[in-house]
Specification:
The chain is α+β, with helices and mostly antiparallel strands. 27% of the residues lie in helices and 27% in strands. The longest helix has 26 residues. 34% of the residues are buried. This is DUF3298 domain-containing protein.
C-alpha cells in the first residue's frame, strides 16, 4: 500500500502543479498549504476504509458564520465519501479530501478556500482530482460569480478568453487547439492577494498534463 500512496502523492504533485510556471505544488497562485498556526481555521483529519480526509474547520468568532462554513464543508465531504463508497461496491477505489488555503485571514471580508477531492481506482494509470470552490461573505453566505460580476466589469467570456491566451502563453501552459470557452467556469477562488482566480480543471481547456489552470482576473471587488 505504501508504494500506491507514494505514487498517488507524486501524481497529485504533478497534476496540481503543472499549471504554474514555478511548478508550485498548490492548485494555483494566491493559494498556500494549510498552516496549523492559522487563527481562522484548523484542520480535522481522519481515515476510514479507503477514505483519507483532511478538511478545514472554521474558528470564526461569529457563531452563525462558523456554522455555515463548517456545514458546507461537511455536506460536500459527506457527498464525496458516499460517492467513493458506491464506487467500492464495483471496484476498489481510494479517496482523498484535502484543502487549499486562499483568503482566509481572521479579518478578511471574504473567506475563500478550495476543497480538493481525489479518487484512485485500484491499478488505474493515475488519480483523478477535482476542486470545489468555497467562498463566503462576512455572514457565511456563499459568494458567487454573479455577485462579483456586479462590480467587476472584466468578468466576461471575451476577457476570460483573452486572459487565457495571454497568461497561458506567458507561463508556457499547453492548451487544446480549440480552447475557447463559451461561458465562465463555475470554479473560482479569491487568493491571498485579493485577486479573483478562475480555475479550469484538467481536460477543460488543456490536457491532463497541464493540470489545473488558474486565470488571474484582477482584484476582487465586492
Amino acid at each position: 500500500m505504501k508504494w500506491k500512496t507514494a505514487a498517488l502523492a507524486l501524481s497529485l504533485f504533478l497534476a496540481l502543479s503543472a499549471g504554474s510556471a514555478e511548478a508550485e505544488w498548490t492548485l494555483g497562485p494566491g493559494l498556500a498549504p494549510p498552516l496549523p498556526t492559522n487563527p481562522a481555521f484548523s484542520t480535522k483529519g481522519w481515515q476510514e476504509g479507503t477514505m483519507n480526509v483532511n478538511i478545514p474547520v472554521s474558528k470564526d468568532e461569529n457563531l452563525l458564520k462558523r456554522a455555515r462554513i463548517n456545514a458546507a464543508v461537511e455536506v460536500e465531504t459527506d457527498c464525496f465519501t458516499r460517492t467513493i463508497e458506491k464506487r467500492n461496491e464495483i471496484w476498489k477505489t481510494s479517496g482523498w479530501v484535502t484543502w487549499q488555503s486562499a483568503m482566509d485571514r481572521k479579518d478578511s471580508p471574504v473567506t475563500s478556500f478550495l476543497l480538493v477531492e481525489s479518487s484512485y481506482p485500484d491499478r488505474a494509470a493515475h488519480p483523478m482530482s477535482r476542486a470545489v470552490a468555497m467562498n463566503f461573505d462576512r455572514l457565511g453566505h456563499r459568494v458567487t460569480l454573479k455577485d462579483l460580476k456586479k462590480t467587476m466589469g472584466n468578468l466576461t467570456v471575451e476577457e476570460v478568453n483573452r486572459q487565457i491566451d495571454i497568461q497561458c502563453g506567458e507561463r508556457n501552459i499547453h492548451l487544446f487547439a480549440r480552447h475557447e470557452v463559451r461561458k465562465l467556469p463555475d470554479l473560482f477562488y479569491i487568493g491571498k492577494d485579493n485577486h479573483v482566480y478562475l480555475v479550469f480543471e484538467p481536460y477543460e481547456i488543456g490536457p491532463y498534463a497541464s493540470g489545473f489552470i488558474a486565470i488571474d482576473m484582477g482584484e476582487a471587488k465586492l
